[in-house]
Design goal:
Blueprint: H1 2-8, H2 27-33, H3 38-41, E1 44-47, E2 66-70, E3 75-79, E4 81-85, H4 101-111, H5 114-120, H6 132-141, E5 147-153, E6 159-160, E7 168-170, H7 173-176, E8 180-193, E9 198-201, E10 214-219, E11 228-229, E12 232-233, E13 235-239, E14 257-259, E15 263-265, H8 266-277, E16 280-283, E17 291-295, E18 298-300, H9 301-311, E19 315-319, E20 322-326, H10 332-364, H11 382-388, E21 400-401, H12 407-420, E22 425-441, E23 452-456, H13 458-461, E24 488-492, H14 496-508, E25 513-517, H15 521-533, E26 537-542, H16 565-572, H17 576-585, H18 603-613, E27 622-624, H19 654-664, H20 704-724, E28 731-733, E29 748-752, H21 770-773, E30 780-784, H22 791-807, E31 811-815, H23 824-831
Parallel strand pairs: 1-3, 16-20, 24-25, 24-31, 25-26, 26-27, 27-28, 30-31
Antiparallel strand pairs: 1-17, 2-3, 4-13, 5-6, 5-7, 5-10, 8-9, 8-22, 11-12, 14-18, 15-17, 19-20, 21-22, 22-23, 28-29, 29-30
Helix pairs in contact: 4-6, 4-10, 14-15, 17-22
């Protein structure tokens, strides 16, 4: 594996530097010097000529990055190039190409032998000390331009010029071959907190420089390739041309001749053309205020619309009964989400690879050569050295007396404790530990400041087990449901034969209630009749947006990527992020049926059937679950922990998008979700006329995400409120979550809905287990039971369920709605003990 990865980077080309020109005269000024002759050349249109400036020394329109396009009844002066964000990812990714420099350091470390380790930890290792395959890795670590700052440490830790030496120096190509890599340790002083926690007091390496000492630091000035990630080009600059469009510019309705105003905003222009043609044309809010300058009296409407599309390198996308002039047929926000998901998965894979390299480094043993700087002003005494030689975790579980520290370290402890304030830090014990750093060494032997930390030294020196040690290996054994807990069994089926057998299965495994999710009256009646004979309660389980699997309808709810809920779940559960989380948390695939949107015409028909089912004789009430699917929560925030569920956010139906577009001049698929912006990476996704959806820490266009969230939440709440008001009998209601991405680990609550007025809201909004463990006496915890095939996930799921049953206070409902109906008995026998009649 290591040799193969090294080979991958031998052919890597250096990064290219972008060419920048100087701003010159405006295009409007140029056109005034070169008047357009309408009589001989016909009408002409140009967008934003006052703003467009010359950026090169080329002649004519090329100096402005513009050229003429003849469209029949008029000419347009439009950009020569367009930017395409290619989120198809047809080319395979190169994992090594996407590694950060420090990860490549780990990789190089795995290739070093014992003698090379000693060199790297003393004077530093360079090309002359490496084999050919190692040199390829070493060269990929070097910056494409090696520049460093040179100075001296002045008073107050300032940096002052070094006499006789320029402040910034760039090495030649030949000089770069003499650069070396150096690994060393420094000390972090772990401290115990008064509340039982732990933290660290850093000695702050940079603050320990002696006045007059050299200060040498590398400057990261290398031009970065911001068009590609992991060897795949994502941002492409192509020759401008008409993009595929939902609007057929050759339509007979667009043959109408429209008047050309001398200057007009794109908003007004599209509105006027639309009125003439009987179409609803809306330019995106980011370009609506652009000014079109026209020469000539009239032109064909279809030609003018082509001219506007070319002018902003965009196209017309159909949304409900409108056409929006935007960047591309695929939404800006949708592409941004695709890129983020692709990048996140690859980053997770590279992280796993890095962890594997760390284990290889520790097993090989060469990393034990990493020592401490000999010129450090902070000495390490015997007590510290003895403590750090142990194999303990650096979490405060093992400490040493603070009075055994050298005086200079005791001073650092006191100073650090002062920064925490309020006596939070214990001053009687500490746990010093090593942290490993790396830096470059110049050809003349002078070391530069450290580049980055490689983490705690123990992570590179201890011999750990396999990568799967963290996975659960618990053997799944049948669990005994506690008698008298009123535990419920939730099953989904439209098969009367299966429904009639549920009560016997429930009783034999200790359950006292049946919650049946069905759309068929006969199925519910069979379940009720069988349950009454065994003195079981039966409730109708309703997920109001779900329709039976296999229902043929094109009227489904959609995500920003255009996926139905079922398609989105399959995509999401195939991501590396999900796979990692499912092993860590015991999250399992949940096979919900297809979902409808609040504005679906089919919804009323489905709901009328469920309302009638709720009136079935002998029924003990209704259980309402999942009334608020992903995306319909009223607030959107960044959660600190947990995976991103953006892929599952629904509400992107044609009608809801159309309503929002008319009111806000933005198609919601073009909104860049601000939650994505926390995943910052060095990739330019900027579109010349539609902004840069990569940076900024806010949604784009600003404020639109909150409005879109409010619209979806309002539509959901209004529909649900109307529906539940018509249900009969006692209702158990799953409290709604106010925040996108809330993940109630371990299950959700359902509680009696007594007042039948305001919809119940959960007190637990984050990704925590509190909700499952804090069920009120008259409520249930619904523990969603997936159907994983991976034994490790099943084991983790089993661990979670056993832990929940030991800690939870309320009643329990096991949700088997994701289990195929013909597998229900098999799964019950595996997981829950058969106790005869279940009522001993």
């Amino acid at each position: 594996m290591i040799t193969a990865l090294a080979a991958l980077i031998l052919a890597n080309s250096p990064w290219t530097r972008p060419i920048t020109g100087q701003t010159g005269e405006s295009l409007a000024n140029y056109l005034s010097k070169h008047p357009w002759d309408v009589a001989s050349r016909g009408p002409m249109l140009v967008v934003n000529p006052v703003i467009v400036r010359s950026t090169t020394t080329e002649s004519g329109l090329r100096a402005f990055g513009r050229k003429e396009f003849n469209l029949g009844s008029l000419t347009v002066i439009a950009p020569t190039e367009m930017v395409i964000i290619d989120a198809a990812f047809k080319d395979p990714a190169n994992l090594y190409d996407g590694l950060p420099r420090t990860a490549k350091i780990y990789y190089l470390m795995t290739m070093l032998d014992a003698d090379q380790w000693k060199i790297a930890c003393s004077s530093g290792i360079g090309l002359g000390n490496l084999r050919q395959d190692q040199r390829a890795v070493f060269r990929s670590i070097l910056p494409s331009v090696f520049t460093y700052e040179s100075g001296l440490v002045g008073k107050g830790n300032s940096v002052v010029p070094k006499p006789g030496e320029p402040p910034t120096i760039t090495l030649t190509t030949d000089e770069e071959t003499g650069v070396r890599l150096h690994f060393f340790q420094d000390i972090e002083l772990g401290v115990k907190m008064q509340d039982g926690g732990f933290s660290a007091v850093s000695p702050q390496l940079g603050d320990r420089k002696r006045e007059g000492a050299p200060y040498l630091r590398r400057s990261d000035v290398a031009a970065e390739d911001r068009t590609s990630l992991f060897g795949v080009q994502i941002r492409k600059v192509l020759e401008n041309r008409l993009k595929p469009s939902d609007l057929n510019y050759k339509l007979k309705a667009l043959d109408v001749v429209v008047n050309l105003s001398k200057t007009v905003t794109l908003d007004d222009f599209c509105r006027s053309i639309g009125a003439s043609c009987g179409l609803k044309l809306i330019p995106d809010v980011r370009i609506g205020d652009f000014i079109a300058t026209c020469y000539g009296p009239t032109a064909r409407a279809g030609d003018v619309l082509q001219a506007l599309a070319l002018s902003v390198t965009g196209t017309f996308r159909k949304v409900a009964d409108s056409y929006v002039l935007t960047s591309d047929l695929e939404g800006i926000g949708a592409k941004r989400l695709k890129v983020d998901t692709w990048k996140s998965d690859l980053t997770l894979q590279t992280g796993e690879r890095t962890e594997e390299w760390k284990r290889l480094i520790g097993s090989a043993g060469g990393s034990r050569s990493i020592g401490f700087p000999t010129d450090s002003p902070l000495r390490i005494n015997d007590s510290m050295a003895k403590f750090m030689s142990g194999d303990q975790e650096n979490d405060g579980s093992k400490t040493m007396p603070a009075n055994q520290l050298p005086p200079e370290w005791q001073a650092i402890l006191i100073e650090g404790a002062t920064h925490f304030g309020n006596g939070q830090v214990r001053k009687d014990v500490v746990f010093p530990y090593g942290e490993t750093f790396w830096n470059f060494v110049l050809p003349d032997g002078r070391p530069l400041e450290w580049e980055e930390s490689l983490g705690q030294t123990k992570d590179l020196t201890q011999r750990e087990g396999s990568a799967n040690d963290h996975m659960s290996k618990t053997v799944v054994k049948p669990i005994h449901i506690r008698n008298g807990t009123a535990s419920a069994l939730l099953v989904k089926t439209d098969d009367p034969a299966i429904a009639s057998k549920l009560s016997g299965l429930a009783v034999s495994h200790g359950f006292e209630e049946i919650w049946l999710q069905t759309w068929k009256l006969q199925c519910l009646q069979e379940a009720v009749a069988a349950a009454k004979a065994l003195h079981l309660r039966v409730r109708l389980a309703i997920r109001p947006w779900e329709i039976p699997a296999g229902s043929k309808t094109g009227d489904l709810d959609r995500t920003v990527l255009g996926d139905s809920s079922t398609q989105a779940e399959n995509f999401f559960e195939g991501t590396a992020s999900w796979q990692s989380a499912s092993h860590s948390w015991g999250l399992t695939p949940i096979a919900n049926g297809p979902l409808l949107a609040p504005d679906s015409p089919l919804l009323l028909q489905v709901w009328r059937g469920l309302i009638e089912l709720s009136k079935t004789d002998g029924l003990d009430g209704v259980v309402l679950c999942d009334t608020e699917p992903h995306g319909y929560e009223p607030r959107s925030i960044n959660l600190e922990f947990g995976m991103s569920y953006y892929l599952l956010d629904l509400g992107y139906t044609q009608s809801l998008r159309g309503r929002f577009l008319e009111d806000n001049k933005v198609d919601p698929v073009d909104i860049v979700d601000k939650r994505l912006l926390r995943n910052d990476f060095k990739l330019d996704l900027g579109l010349p006329f539609f902004g840069d959806p990569t940076y900024g820490g806010m949604d784009l266009p600003s404020g639109t995400l909150e409005k879109w969230t409010t619209l979806r939440a309002g539509a959901n709440r209004q529909s649900v409120t109307k529906f539940v008001s018509q249900l009969s009998g006692e209702i158990l209601f799953q409290p709604r979550h106010n925040l996108h991405e809330s993940i109630a680990l371990g299950g959700v609550q359902v509680v009696p809905w007594v007042d039948r007025k305001s919809l119940p809201t959960s007190n637990y909004q984050g990704n925590i287990e509190e909700e499952a463990e804090s069920v009120p006496v008259n409520g249930f915890c619904v523990w969603q039971f997936g159907n994983p095939k991976d034994p490790a996930i099943r084991s983790r799921m089993y661990d979670s369920l056993v832990r929940h049953m030991k800690r939870a206070k309320g009643k329990l409902a096991i949700d088997l709605s994701s289990i195929p109906s013909d597998e229900i008995q098999t799964e019950l026998d595996k997981w829950f003990a058969a106790d005869g009649d279940g009522r001993k």
